[in-house]
Write a structure and sequence with these properties.
This protein is of the alpha/beta class. The protein contains 14 helices and 15 strands. The protein folds into 2 domains: 164 residues, Rossmann fold; 202 residues, Rossmann fold (3-Layer(aba) Sandwich), CATH 3.40.50. It has a 6-stranded parallel β-sheet. A 6-stranded parallel β-sheet has the order 9-8-7-13-14-15, with helices on both faces. A 3-stranded antiparallel β-sheet has the order 11-10-12.
Amino acid sequence: MNLDKAGLDSLDLKSNRVLMRVDFNVPRDDAGAITDDTRIRAALPTIQAVLAAGGQPILMSHLGRPGGEERDDLRLDAIGERLRELLDVPVIKLDESEGSEAEMGVADTEDLVLLENVRFHPGETKGDPRLASGFARLGDVFVNDAFGASHRDHASVSGVARVLPSAAGLLLKAEIDAFRRVLDAPARPFAAVLGGAKVSDKLPVIENLLDKVDRILIGGGMAYTFVVARGGQVGGSLFQADQLELVRGLDAKAKEKGVEILIPTDHVIGDGFAADCTAKTVVGDIPDGWMGLDIGPESQAAYAAALADCETIVWNGPMGVFEWDAFQAGTAAVGRAIADASAYSVVGGGDSVAAAAKFGLTDSMSHISTGGGASLELLEGKELPGIACLPDA
């Protein structure tokens, strides 16, 4: 997949309706109030660029998983209110995203328009071309600025791009440029820091990165399958027995290619999976009745040393259950090592982004990705439908 895609300057924005796919799938509390507007703020530069060029933004997004049905708790009214506050311009929130009422609503105003949740339509997640054509009637040109949804072949993402003149928005371009930098011609040494619960989720990433990186640092629950594959004992820790042969195969490939795969040599363990469980540190094997919940201080130091001279670092996944105080030190230490390195660093995946924010490291990272699933699939070497359908630059 060519990642060099046409940007806003390739479209005629002035006096045109600019249909924009954004990612406003924001977290909210039980009352429906927005608890984190990061994704809304991330889209503001593209919206403001369209307004400055004399275009009329027509915004469409999903929220949650309504399953193709209208749900009052998943309407975008609160997002419309937040947009008004952030942009200080009139925002017209419509109750439809397609059809005659939506078309009349767009035609009746020159202000910024926010359409209703696109996933209220059953055909959205099926990539229904009829629905995509219905969306397309609301705009003259199309801008995809929803990196977090670009791994989906949905009607409002790739479907509309097949109908209207299209381009990547500023946020999407920034994401593309960051991943091009680390995947196409990375400065070396290049390290990937991978964590998370299941090793099966990250094996495709490791497979794809073996030809690109110099070292891979493994943490989180996925580390214990590597430990078992290398002959260690992990007690009651999470590991996937059905992935052992695949892990051993990747270990062998890494050795052939001269890629170092680091796994924890000591662990912070707990006698149960709970924030208030008894915790202690062990070197080597984990005893029965205990489970590994973080990498230990010896591993933290080794990982920091492995990152110190790197010129490129990708971080996807925490080193342990960082949400709990007793098991946050490993993720914090590795995060700080990435922040302190002179490397170009890309942080992808919701948990890694949340950890960077928790430990005050966000501003020290070169690029914080807005799409967990999309960034993971790029690291796997997959083609993202929402990007592939856009015209090349």
